[in-house]
Amino acid sequence: MESVTFDTLTAAKTLERAGFDDTQAEAMVKTINKAVSESVATKADLKVLDESVHGEIKVLDESVKGEFKAVRGEIKALDESVKGEFKAVRGEIKALDESVKGEFKALDESVEGKFKEVHGEFKTIRGEIKALELSMTIKLGAMLFATALFILGVGKFLFS
Questions:
Q1: DSSP secondary structure, the chain, as one string
Q2: Which residue from 53, 50, 36 is spatially nearest to 2, judged by alpha carbons?
Q3: For residues 89, 90, 91 and 97, what is the CA-based torsion angle, rounded to 10 degrees?
Q4: Are 6 and 40 in contact (CB under 8 A)?
Q5: Does the reported pTM lie above 0.70?
Q6: In the list 25, 54, 83, 91, which could disulfide-bond 15, CB 3.0-4.6 Å?
Q7: CA-to-CA distance for 38 and 35, rounded, in angstroms?
Q8: Can you state the angle between helices 8-17 and 22-39, rounded to 10 degrees?
Q9: Buried b (16+ CB within 10 A) or exposed e, 69-99
Q10: How many CB atoms within 10 Å of residue 15?
Q11: Tens digit of pLDDT per residue, the chain (160 long)?
Q12: d(Cα 80, Cα 96) in Å, to the nearest integer?
């Protein structure tokens, strides 16, 4: 460590002019010189400190850059992972959508088939009802005819 320049002779003479005797002035100047030389930093001290601080700052800067690079890598990996998961979910939704559409189509076809089947049965029943109506009409007509013949036969018998 460099020493600080302190003019001890000028300091001693200044103290003597202020009323200190030789011994007191010399003791005071030695004390001040020792205190100044032990506690005051020199330009060289500051330069060493400055270089040390700059070195530490550089180390910290590199460390922080490394950590930021690692965090960016983690964020990128997470982003890719999330994108992959979203892509997978979209695929699952698309598959589910196709499945539901298929099920609705099958259900629609089934309902349409049942509707046609029921419609066919109604058509058959209408035909059977018409045939029954025709049969009943014929039977009723035959009964009326037989009744009329009976009445005419009985009437002939009664009026003859």
A1: -PPPP--HHHHHHHHHHTT--HHHHHHHHHHHHHHHHHHSPPHHHHHHHHHHHHHHHHHHHHHHHHHHHHHHHHHHHHHHHHHHHHHHHHHHHHHHHHHHHHHHHHHHHHHHHHHHHHHHHHHHHHHHHHHHHHHHHHHHHHHHHHHHHHHHHHHHHHH-
A2: 36
A3: 110
A4: no
A5: no
A6: 25
A7: 5
A8: 140
A9: eeeeeeeeeeeeeeeeeeeeeeeeeeeeeee
A10: 19
A11: 456 677 888 988 898 899 989 999 899 989 888 887 777 777 887 888 888 899 899 999 999 999 999 999 999 999 999 999 999 999 999 999 999 999 999 999 999 999 999 999 999 999 999 999 999 999 999 899 888 888 877 666 666 6
A12: 24
Which residue reads 């049942």 in tokens?
114
Retrieve residue 123's tokens: 């058509």
* Residues in CB range of 83: below 8 A, 6 or more apart: none
**CA-angle at 17, arms to 11 and 18, nearest 5°:** 90
User: In this structure, which amino acid lies at residue 87?
Assistant: K
Tokens linked to 79? 């982003």
How many whole angstroms separate alpha carbon 148 and alpha carbon 141? 10
